[in-house]
């Protein structure tokens, strides 16, 4: 299998490396490939203060063209799956019921979701900005999904700049490096995310309304977000405002028709770049803000259902045999002149070929109710990753998935509704207080402790097959300093999905993100300092 990291086997002289790094740093500074520096306390609050280039790979990582195309082709299927699963409220509630008992954060999200079900709240217009992450397993040469992000899919604003940077460098140094800049694929992630947000704003049909970007109080990755807002304003004339959950609770209110007003300004779309971690809800005020937004008619990206659909437990549930193909059966008893029984069958996915494509990329996922897998993980912990359930738990050589779907059948005249049934025997949503994935001997120690403490705590985690991608020498630049090390890469494919009732307005793959990290590191967060932004060189 081709290496999934550095592409250049041509030795690069120290003089050329120094010039490459210098030119790259100038390009980053001129084109906004920047983040706030962690040493400046104001860099996460005040734009333009404490700016430093985003960590980046000096050269793009090689990636097989066939696997890149495979990942792109999966995106519309995953988009549709997320939407369908999000509509199955019973599935989400039942699949996450055990997690709710041991994870307060998941419990609060489910409470909000339950309230929306009770009042019959429907999201007629649904917007998803997703990213599905993959790694190439060196042993099997298989493209395996690490996770699917349905909330705050970051770096759409910066990843396209990295692709531009690499094409720029290869166009000037390609002859020396023996590399072709055209092999770095076009990346329009920022433009296409902005397009999706603008189209959702248009569907809301209020020219005076704004898009609210829900942000954290301290956000060193603000420029990734600002790129989307800039494009919305420049191309579409759509105004955005940035608000924390705390500010929304203080400044927001609902009108009788469900319109959300923030400082008396109507809101068309709510774009979450926060709200995926317990740290974003330090008090009841933030939970009130989340509930207020869910109750509104504003388009949520994501809605509470889409958010829950992206949890690791749902990923594990969907990976079970026959779940993607599962049939939701309801019997309608329609009392007219005659008694008529109508059998209605719905599925998460209708196309058997689509199901096969998704299953091909699923890594092994297990609930901790699976005693055999638990035993295997204790005996061979190096082959597994123990994952906390909640979003933002850290990157790894494995991650998560998705989805949901509501089925409510109304019977004419006197209606007898037999709700869709589905039973979920197990559940796992990693609830590590540290928020990090667990590797190696710590997997064994944690599992043994969980077994000793009792079965309820097991519902806070899932086990995932550890993916072992090939490593290669790579050049990585952080804080203006070049580091050479063996590294591995993870490919993320962005997807946009917009639906208004029965009309699908968008269902597209829209750009990509590559993150590269030192192969000895278990975590891969770029802003956290574990990895660098990268692009792909198709081979």
UniProtKB/TrEMBL annotation:
Catalytic reaction(s) noted: gamma-L-glutamyl-L-cysteine + glycine + ATP = glutathione + ADP + phosphate + H(+)
Q: Does the keyword Amino-acid biosynthesis apply?
A: no
GO CC annotation: what is one? Answer: cytosol
Alphabetically list the UniProt keywords.
ATP-binding, Glutathione biosynthesis, Ligase, Magnesium, Membrane, Metal-binding, Nucleotide-binding, Transmembrane, Transmembrane helix
- Residues given in the record as Mg(2+) binding sites: 147, 149, 391
Q: Tell me its cofactors.
A: Mg(2+)
Q: Which InterPro entries match?
A: Glutathione_synthase, Glutathione_synthase_C_euk, Glutathione_synthase_N_euk, GSH-S_sub-bd_sf, GSH_synth_subst-bd, PreATP-grasp_dom_sf
Glutathione synthase substrate-binding domain span: 209-309
Q: Name one GO molecular function term.
A: glutathione binding
Q: Could you give the cofactor binding note from the entry?
A: Binds 1 Mg(2+) ion per subunit.
Please tell me where substrate binds in this chain.
131, 225, 515
Q: Which CDD domains does the UniProt entry name for this protein?
A: eu-GS (cd00228)
Transmembrane parts of this sequence: 328-349, 405-423
Q: Which Pfam family, just one, is annotated for this protein?
A: GSH_synth_ATP
List ligand-binding residues for ATP.
147, 312, 387-437, 439, 464-467, 490, 517, 523
Pathway the protein acts in: Sulfur metabolism; glutathione biosynthesis; glutathione from L-cysteine and L-glutamate: step 2/2
EC number(s)? 6.3.2.3
Q: Which NCBIfam families match?
A: glut_syn_euk (TIGR01986)
Similarity field: Belongs to the eukaryotic GSH synthase family.
> What protein am I looking at?
Glutathione synthetase
| Organism of derivation | Coptis chinensis
């Amino acid at each position: 299998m081709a290496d999934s990291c550095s592409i250049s086997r041509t030795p690069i002289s120290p003089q050329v490396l120094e010039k490459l790094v210098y030119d790259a740093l100038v390009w980053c500074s001129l084109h906004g490939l920047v983040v706030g520096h962690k040493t400046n306390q104001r860099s996460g609050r005040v734009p333009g203060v404490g700016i430093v280039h985003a960590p980046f790979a000096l050269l793009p990582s090689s990636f097989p063209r066939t696997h890149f195309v495979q990942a792109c082709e999966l995106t519309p299927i995953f988009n549709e799956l997320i939407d369908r699963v999000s509509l199955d409220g019973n599935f989400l509630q039942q699949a996450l019921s055990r997690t709710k008992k041991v994870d307060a954060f998941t419990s609060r999200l489910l409470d909000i979701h339950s309230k929306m079900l009770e009042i019959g709240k429907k999201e007629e217009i649904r917007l998803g900005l997703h990213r599905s992450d993959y790694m190439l397993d060196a042993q099997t040469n298989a493209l395996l999904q690490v996770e699917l992000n349905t909330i705050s899919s970051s770096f759409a604003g910066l990843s396209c700049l990295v692709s531009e940077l690499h094409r720029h460098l290869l166009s000037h140094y390609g002859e020396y490096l023996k590399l072709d800049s055209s092999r770095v694929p076009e990346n329009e992630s920022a433009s296409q995310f902005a397009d999706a947000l603008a189209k959702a704003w248009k569907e809301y049909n209020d020219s005076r309304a704004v898009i609210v970007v829900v942000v954290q109080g301290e956000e060193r990755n603000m420029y990734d977000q600002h790129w989307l807002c800039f494009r919305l304003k420049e191309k579409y004339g759509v105004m955005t405002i940035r608000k924390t959950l705390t500010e929304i609770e203080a400044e927001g209110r609902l009108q009788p028709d469900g319109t959300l007003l923030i400082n008396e300004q109507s809101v068309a779309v709510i774009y979450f770049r926060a709200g995926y971690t317990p740290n974003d809800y330090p008090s009841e005020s933030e939970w009130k803000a989340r509930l207020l937004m869910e109750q509104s008619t504003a388009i949520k990206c994501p809605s509470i259902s889409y958010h829950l659909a992206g949890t690791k437990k749902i990923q594990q549930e969907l990976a079970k045999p026959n779940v993607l193909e599962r049939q939701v059966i309801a019997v309608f008893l329609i009392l007219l002149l005659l008694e008529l029984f109508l059998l209605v069958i719905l599925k998460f996915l209708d196309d058997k070929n689509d199901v096969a494509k998704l299953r091909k990329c699923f890594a092994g996922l297990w609930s901790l109710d699976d005693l055999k897998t638990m035993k295997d993980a204790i005996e061979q912990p190096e082959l597994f990753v123990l994952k906390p359930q909640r979003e933002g738990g850290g990157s790894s050589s494995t991650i998560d998935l998705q989805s949901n779907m509501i089925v409510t059948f109304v019977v004419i005249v006197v209606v007898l509704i037999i709700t869709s049934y589905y039973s979920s025997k197990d559940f796992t949503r990693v609830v590590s207080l540290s928020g990090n994935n667990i590797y190696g001997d710590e997997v064994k120690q944690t599992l043994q402790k969980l077994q000793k403490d009792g079965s309820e705590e097991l519902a806070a985690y899932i086990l995932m097959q550890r993916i072992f991608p090939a490593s290669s020498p790579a050049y990585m630049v952080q804080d203006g300093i070049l580091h050479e090390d063996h590294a591995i890469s993870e490919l993320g494919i962005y997807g946009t999905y917009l639906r208004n009732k029965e009309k699908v307005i968008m269902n597209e793959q829209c750009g990509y993100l590559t993150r590269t990290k030192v192969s000895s590191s278990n975590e891969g967060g770029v802003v956290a300092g574990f990895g660098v932004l990268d692009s792909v060189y198709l081979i």
